[in-house]
Amino acid sequence: MSHLHLRQVSKRFGAVQAVIDATLQVQAGEFVSLLGPSGSGKTTTLMMIAGFEEPTAGSIELAGRQVEHVPPNQRDIGMVFQNYALFPHLSIAANIAFPLKVRGRPRAETEAAVRGALALVGLEEMATRLPRQLSGGQQQRVALARALGYQPTLLLLDEPLSALDKNLREQMQIELRRIHRQVGITTLYVTHDQAEAMTLSDRIVVFNRGRIEQVGAPLEVYARPATRFAAGFIGDSTILDGTASTAPTELRLPDGTTLHTAQPLHTNATGAASLLIRPEDFHLGEPPAGANALPVQVLSVLNLGPHLLLIGQHAGREIRIRTPVSPAALASEGSTITAWWLPAKSWPIPPA
Amino acid sequence: MKPGIPTWLLLLPAVAYLVLVFGAPLGNTFWMSITEPSLGLQNFETILTDPLYARVYLRTVLVAASVTLLCLGFGYPLAHYMARRGGLAAALLLGICGLCFWISYLVRTYAWTVILGNRGPVTAVARWLGIEPPPVLLFTTTASLIAMTHILLPYMVLTLYVVLARIDPNLIRAAHSLGASRWQSFTAVVLPLSLPAVVSGCLLVFIFCVGFYVTPTLLGSPRDMMISSLIANEIEALLDFGSASALAMMLLAAILVLLTIYDRLVGIDRIMR
Is A214 helix (H, G, I), strand (E, B) or coil? Predict the structure, then answer.
């Protein structure tokens, strides 16, 4: 039985359908990211799980209990807010003790829990400080300690790292993973940053326009996106649109080129279909037998350190190629090169 | 900035004006309190020893404290509702408060004389309910309490609202998510964060109230005289400028003491924030 189970949860604000038929099962101890652009329904879904919004339809089951009408303070959930939401008038220790105090736990237990939570995030010496005396990263860690200190059944994180700068954000990602491994709490993490979702999660839930488009392990979502949106939102991508040929694994581009794939195409009623190729799957040079090949006019070459990103086009479609640094590739800007890839590396996605 | 034109010159007009119309009369009042009718502290001695004055001071403080508590009692829930609700409802209520601000308190005081008067709606309703004789409200302490609370309520509400509206709603959500009930999150988060505003609002209302003249004079009972009426009486009826000045100085001193305590507790720069 799953720890958290959303069954066809919908939320409407007036005429706006914020979440439509969201169904999701999360296992105990899992780290699951809700990923999507702003307005995709991920935050509303989190707010319904937290109890700040009531679903218009559907049910939410947490630890074997129907909770969709239970007020937030009786759900036993720990939540970390985007702006930390530390109580400014309380010391760090008092902030962490707050959830235990309102539960009327004995003083000794509370003190032990506060010490434990502070040790978990490495801020023991900050106990008597006020939140405003701490840096953003430290405040974030206090918010985490406060949400974990009373050992809730579920941890919710609402874009917790978005206010931090890049270096600190990466540091906190490592920290989050460590803490999650150490505590083992079931965690839901809302983010619009696909790289963050990829690094942190056991599974990713891709949201778009209020719907869950795909649920899967990060690499699975990356390699085999279920929808055009998921393909474009996660990772760099080249999408080629064409029409189905006679064979179910052949795509004909508008210029007449035929491309092969190892999977049957997703063809719509008009016969349109599309293929996704990830930038690292392209190769330059003479294509081997059976490979797909395209002439690509290179528009710009970006040196990303360990590799180059070639941005070019073929018949008006943007092609993004990741390739090792080489003199030929470096000099290719403005010229037309041949890029090839294996049929197994063209992933069929639904047409636009 | 050009050298040679010091910016403090910008202060000059305002400072000169204040010295002329506020500083000078105040100094004159102080001077009269120790020189009328002769040099010495006898005016203060009379005030401190005559139980009449002590009674009036005590009554003034009691009335001011009552009005302050009434304003807080009515104002806090209202400001809290406005701050939490936001949107049109808050804008509307804020507009009503602002309107009360802009209508002269003199006008509002006279309005109360009509409302509470013998032929006013309150009396009419009492008669209609069969209460005979209807309660006499005008020229009682109750009337002046009602009117002063009404006049000073916007100060309390606005002072509280500004601070309550600035409390991050995520703090209240955080308290809920951490297990606090509505009441717990109010007492543990909202109330302590709004406490400086409660002190500011109370101080503001209290200080306005101890010096209130027109409203208690027009609506209140002549027997329940407040300090400002006593000062006016000393001047108009008794022509005792020395006693009147000394009374005014004592009132001023009391307010300064209050402000000092407030400064220690909250910080004087927060009074209008």
Answer: strand
Inter-chain contact B176–A72, Cβ cutoff 8 Å?
yes
Chain B contact set for A85 (CB, 8 A): 168, 170-171, 173-174
Reply yes or no on domain B52-270 having CATH 1.10.3720.10: yes
Domains recognised in chain A with CATH numbers: 4-228 (3.40.50.300), 237-349 (2.40.50.140)
A76·B184 Cβ contact <8 A: no
Cis peptide before A279 (omega within 30 of 0): no
Whether A85 and B171 lie within 8 Å, measured CB to CB: yes
Contact A190, A43 (CB under 8 A): yes
Of A52, A73, A88, which has the smallest distance from its Cβ to B179's Cβ?
A73
Of B178, B179, B192, the CB nearest to A89: B192
Three-state helix/strand/coil letters over B36-103: CCCCCCHHHHHHHHCHHHHHHHHHHHHHHHHHHHHHHHHHHHHHHHHHHHCHHHHHHHHHHHHHHHHC
As for the ipTM of the complex, it is 0.83
Percentages helix, strand, coil for chain A (3-state, rounded to 5) are 30, 35, 35
Per-residue pLDDT of chain B (273 residues; tens, 9 = 90+): 556 778 888 899 999 999 999 999 999 999 999 998 888 899 999 888 999 898 999 999 999 999 999 999 999 999 999 999 888 989 999 999 888 888 888 899 999 999 998 888 888 888 888 888 888 888 888 899 999 999 999 999 999 999 999 999 999 999 999 999 999 999 999 999 999 899 999 999 999 999 899 899 889 888 888 899 899 988 888 888 999 999 999 999 999 998 898 888 877 666 554
Cis amide leading into B133 (omega within 30): yes
A348 — phi, psi (to 5°)? -70, 130
- Contact (CB<8Å) A88/B193: yes
Listed by start position, the domains of chain B span 52-270
Interface test with A, best of B178, B185, B194, B198 (most A CBs within 10 A): B178
pTM beyond 0.90: the answer is no
Determine how many CB atoms are found less than 10 A away from the CB of residue A143: 26
